[in-house]
């Protein structure tokens, strides 16, 4: 069994590049999204196409993506994840108050890695507020729940979106978009095949609920 833990220092030079426990996948998710683990490598050349639809369709934009690679465990039985970081303009990306976000990640060769589609509703968002949505896509046993204690081990894709409203109530994506990709290894596929249980990809979107919105700083 591997062991390990999350550090609280933002990309500290002493932070481990390897998270060494399958039981810490949930902790790993939070640590990576908040920049508390030092990556083993950084790759440029990825891009993301960002689009939204609803009461109006803002112009599609293409943004560079900085990709940070991590080692989840020091053996070959676990897939190696990477984080894609998309920095937005200071003014943000204006979106309808209710609609669908689409973020398509492309590798340096221009091949689609993953298309994220997230439905959202910010019609009740007060002016000068902020919130976030996080969509997880799990490769999970058919009939299982995303609240299962093992759900963190089924994670394959994740997108973290930050929303903010202006004084006039217009809604924007702000600051950045973060994507987490778990590359499925041969060992993963063999383990699933061995169980004989049918698996399926399912997406679940969650955000804060108490409170749902916070005042902008």
UniProtKB/TrEMBL annotation:
Record organism? Hirondellea gigas
Pfam families given in the database record: Chromosome_seg (PF13889), DUF4210 (PF13915)
Enumerate the transmembrane spans. Answer: none
Per its UniProt entry, which superkingdom is the organism in?
Eukaryota
Q: What is this protein called?
A: Protein FAM214A-like
Q: Which residues form the Atos-like conserved domain?
A: 24-83
Q: Which family does the UniProt entry place this protein in?
A: Belongs to the ATOS family.
Q: Which SMART domains match?
A: DUF4210
């Amino acid at each position: 069994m591997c062991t390990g833990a999350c550090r609280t220092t933002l990309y500290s030079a002493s932070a481990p590049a390897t998270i060494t426990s399958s039981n810490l996948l949930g902790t790993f998710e939070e640590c990576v999204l908040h920049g508390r683990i030092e990556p083993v490598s950084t790759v440029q050349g990825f891009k993301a196409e960002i689009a939204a639809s609803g009461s109006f369709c803002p112009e599609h934009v293409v943004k560079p993506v900085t990709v940070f690679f991590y080692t989840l465990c020091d053996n070959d039985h676990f897939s190696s994840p990477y984080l894609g970081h998309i920095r937005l303009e200071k003014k943000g990306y204006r979106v309808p108050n209710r609609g669908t976000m689409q973020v398509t990640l492309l590798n340096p060769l221009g091949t689609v890695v993953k298309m994220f589609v997230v439905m959202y509703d910010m019609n009740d968002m007060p002016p000068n507020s902020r919130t976030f949505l996080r969509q997880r896509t799990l490769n999970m046993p058919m009939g299982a729940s995303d609240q299962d204690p093992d759900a963190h081990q089924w994670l394959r894709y994740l997108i973290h979106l930050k929303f903010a409203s202006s004084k006039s109530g217009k809604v924007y994506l702000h600051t950045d978009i973060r994507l987490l990709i778990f590359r499925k290894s041969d060992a993963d596929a063999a383990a699933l095949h061995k169980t004989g249980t049918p698996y399926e990809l399912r997406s679940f979107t969650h955000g804060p609920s108490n409170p749902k919105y916070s005042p902008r700083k």
